[in-house]
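G., the chain you wanted modeled:
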Amino acid sequence: MPWGTRQNPPVSQLLTTWAKLLGCETEPRTISDKDQVKKVEYPSRTNGPTLTVLYLEGHGHHWPGGQKVLPESMTGPITSKLDATDTLWDFFQASPGSSAKGR
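Predicted structure as tokens:
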């Protein structure tokens, strides 16, 4: 990088930290793995929230399901295997106490 170097911890380490903070197991279990979308969960230990993570294989730095604006040389490839907007909307509709149900 032009402003120096930076090292980020592995994503798995950050997810383990989040899982601990949420009261979840620290070992994920794979729920599904098909069509370049892998879904893993860190189950709750306390009947609290479950940490769910979606991995998109081969997807660059784009909003999944969105329009490609910048060239692939800058942001990597785009896939259409998942629409992030629809996925988030489904999540919030299914959340307890959601007033979005039925919209």
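The longest strand covers residues 29-34.

Shout if anything looks off.
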